[in-house]
Amino acid sequence: MAEDPRAVETMKFKTVEIDLNRPPVAHLYLNLPSRRNALSLDSFAEISAAISALDRHPDVLAVVVSGRGTQFCSGIDLSALETIVSSAGSTATDPGRSRERLRRQILSLQAALSAFEGCRKPVLAAVDGSCIGAGVDLVSACDLRYCTRAASFVVKEVDLAIAADLGTLQRLPRIVGYGNAAEMALTARSVSAAEAKEMGLVSRVFDSREEMEVGVRAIAEEICKKSPMAVMGTKAVLLKSRDVSVEQGLDYAATWNSGMLISDDLQEAIKAFIQKRKPTFAKL
């Protein structure tokens, strides 16, 4: 049986919150303010489920991600980290099987945050307060990042005697450059909003949370005015081209546009331009 594309409207969550009151932009909140939005095992599962459901929702064309309370995300919940490590060896007498179980658990957490990148629709991170550890993994998987002057970013894992393993070391160098990413990851120092803007981690810095919410929503709404097919294709080609040669990226773009050029969206865009009106596109 096909999944209900509107299932997210009735889904219940403990650690995240979804606001669908102003489509076509959906707002996903990390919603554990009492724990500074630390990511528990439930958080990872709910993030994955929420993004998958928003990706399928026909009325949603862009997603904004932010945190409830004064912090964006304080990283992985340390009790969750302890549970993962202890459970990996709780029953296995074979060290090899124990490590294999731990590997699968890490892959599951990676997949939850990679869901932001895998979502067909653009995901915009709006950061206020601290963004630490797994929070940086999360925003690195988003398409666009914005923050307030009160924001700060820390790749914290080295202080916990581990290497960041949920996406930062793979994605951040492509966003801010190898040197900047390496310094952040090796020193675990705090990067201010101004420095984050300078190195390209965020596209814009807002004076307050209120200004950021208005500004980021306006950017998301502007994206939503474009052809959904073109936006989806642009995201897919950008991500593919990031990881392959220019020649391979061009070939992938040609494949995408061979489909785009026969879509109804192109005809509607041309007609709207000729008729000097705003185009109206069908849902995905």
UniProtKB/TrEMBL annotation:
It is found in: Peroxisome. Keywords: Acetylation, Fatty acid metabolism, Isomerase, Lipid metabolism, Peroxisome. GO terms for cellular component: peroxisome. SUPFAM superfamilies: ClpP/crotonase. InterPro entries: ClpP/crotonase-like_dom_sf, Ech1-like, Enoyl-CoA_hyd/isom_CS, Enoyl-CoA_hydra/iso, Enoyl-CoA_hydra_C. Pathway: Lipid metabolism; fatty acid beta-oxidation. GO terms for molecular function: delta(3,5)-delta(2,4)-dienoyl-CoA isomerase activity. Pfam families: ECH_1 (PF00378). CDD domains: crotonase-like (cd06558). It comes from the Eukaryota. GO terms for biological process: fatty acid metabolic process. Its main location: other. PANTHER family: DELTA(3,5)-DELTA(2,4)-DIENOYL-COA ISOMERASE, MITOCHONDRIAL, ENOYL-COA HYDRATASE. Belongs to the enoyl-CoA hydratase/isomerase family. This is Uncharacterized protein.
